[in-house]
Amino acid sequence: MKHKVFVSVLVVASLALLGLSSCASGPKPTAQMPQEEPTTPTETVQPGVEQKQPEVTDPSKLPPDQASEAALAAAVARAEKSRKQAFDLEVPATFADDWKKAEAFFMTGREKAQVKTQLSYIEATQAYTSAADAYDELALKALPLYAEARRQEIVKARSDAVKAGADQLLPDQLATADKVADTAQEQFNSGEYYTAVASAQEARTRYIILKTGLDAYAVQQEIDRRDFAKYDAGNYSLAQQKLQAAQETYDAGDINASQNNAEEALLRFRLALNKGREMNASGRGEAASAERQAAQDLKANVAVKSDFERAQAVYAEAEQAFKAEKYDDAADLFAQAESLFADVKNVAAEKRARALEAMQNAQQKISATEDAAKKADAVLEGGSR
User: Fold this and answer.
1) Do residues 280 and 331 make contact, with C-beta atoms less than 8 angstroms apart?
2) pLDDT, tens digit (0-9, with 9 covering 90-100), for 123-132
């Protein structure tokens, strides 16, 4: 109210001033006063009261709401699951170009999700959904190929186990593995992807365990045949225990433990066998060295030089094989060198014996000659008297 009174007083004063001016200067053309634009009444801002902001409806400027967040979370979960399944089915290797396209959708979704607006979340959801669709399509294409690859792996693993003697030595265990393999094939046929993969892996592992255990048994037999257990009794005994445990855990269904036991049994039997080979070769080397020294004592390196040098060459080859840890080769070469040194030793001994005999015969002749000379001297001395 005070404001309106103030404006009225101001207008009256202005008009009075205009009237006085026109009286003093005479009549003048009437000037057109500018028309005032109608103004929108303004509300009086009350102290401490916030102004009402205009409502924002642009999704590119709004923060994500609960609905867009939920939609994005669901799309991400589906895309990640589909992506993993496609990856497990070896899609990146089988369909490399199509995999890259699906990955492009996935990466776009990831980038869009970094921007915290409703619009960006909607776009991210769309990209993740496109990625999931692409991954699923590729998985369907790859599944038959993957299943066939797993089947071929199982066939090979079974063949290896049979070659090692599983059908003869472990028929019950082989039948168990066959049953698991059949189950895997049925699951692949019915589209039970993850259970089929697990069953296929179990079947293959069972065949591998049988092959590994039978390989360990074969090494044990070689150790026994060559009487090598005495050279590494600790590893040999532990290997026996692990081989027994491998069969027990296999029958109990503890595949991981069975595989570990079978692998350790094979490792320790091989260590024992290798130790036996090393000690055997070392013994052969000592025998060859003894024959070599005996031949040298008889001067065989001089008496039969060429044969001695041939034996020496084989001995040097045996030493190189031993240093290279080719113990069986070294043992064979040492045995060959031993035989050659023995031969040259015998030849040298025979030559020595013949030389001694000749010397003895010569000495006897000399002695006889000396006796005859003495007798002749005696006769001559007697005749002169």
Assistant:
1) yes
2) 999 999 999 9
Q: What's the pLDDT score for residue 26?
A: 37
CA torsion 57-58-63-65 (nearest 10°) is 60
Q: How far is CA 336 from the centre of its chain?
A: 43
Model confidence, pTM = 0.69
- Judged by DSSP in three states, 80 sits in helix
The pair of structure tokens assigned to 281 is 């070769």
Helix runs in the chain, H state only: 2-25, 66-88, 91-94, 96-112, 118-163, 166-169, 171-189, 193-226, 233-252, 255-297, 300-303, 305-323, 327-384
Query: What angle do the packed helices 327-384 and 255-297 form, to 10 degrees?
Result: 10
Beta-carbon count within 10 A of 307 CB: 18
> Measured between alpha carbons, how far is 383 from 385 in angstroms, rounded to an integer?
5
**DSSP type of residue 94:** H
- Quote the CA–CA distance of 200 and 151 in Å, as a whole number: 8
Q: pLDDT confidence of 141, banded at 50, 70, 90? A: very high
3-state class of 44 per DSSP?
coil
Give CA angle at 146 (145, 151), nearest 5°: 100
Contact 121, 68 (CB under 8 A): yes
Contact 335, 288 (CB under 8 A): yes
- Give pLDDT tens digits for 217-260: 999 999 999 999 999 999 999 999 999 999 999 999 999 999 99
At residue 50 the predicted structure's pLDDT band, cuts being 50, 70 and 90, is low
CA dihedral 165, 171, 176, 181 (to 10 degrees): 50
The whole-angstrom separation of Cα 211 and Cα 174 is 10
Query: Cα–Cα distance between 264 and 216 in angstroms, integer?
Result: 9
CA distance 332 to 339: 11
Query: How far is the C-alpha of 303 from the C-alpha of 14, rounded, in Å?
Result: 153
